[in-house]
Sequence to fold (155 residues):
Amino acid sequence: MSSITPKGFIEVVDEDGALEICQTDGPYGLGVRTLTARAAGEVAHRFTGVIGPELKQHTLQMPDGQHIAETRFIGFLSHSCDPDCRLDMGRFELVALRDTAAGDLLTIDYAASEDVLFRQFACHCGAAACRHWITGRLEGPNAEGQAYLAGLPPT
Ligand SMILES: [Zn+2]
Fold:
């Protein structure tokens, strides 16, 4: 269970140790994989961190517009346009969207929680509905993104 202290620190013990930070195959560096199989709809992880006003590289946006930092795992989740997990930022839960097997890389859609990204980036997730350039949900592609998208071959 979690409790929020007056200073904004949330004191929670991870309820399971079933996630692991790992090196991904892609160019994105670190990711998170599950060490146990999860069924669709199951909570894969409950997280904690430090909540404050600042948007940083590994923070995630809370429903009230603040940002949670220093999470053990979720700041390292990789993006996919067809993710296998979603974050419930109100309940501090990572929820499986489909069945996952032990060893699977867990992914989320960054635009699902973030109004604005710390850094927009090109996506090579391979999903049929890949957006190719990832932004927050309230922002359009920056100049680099517009140039990148304009340079993509027509589909
Ligand atoms: Zn994608």
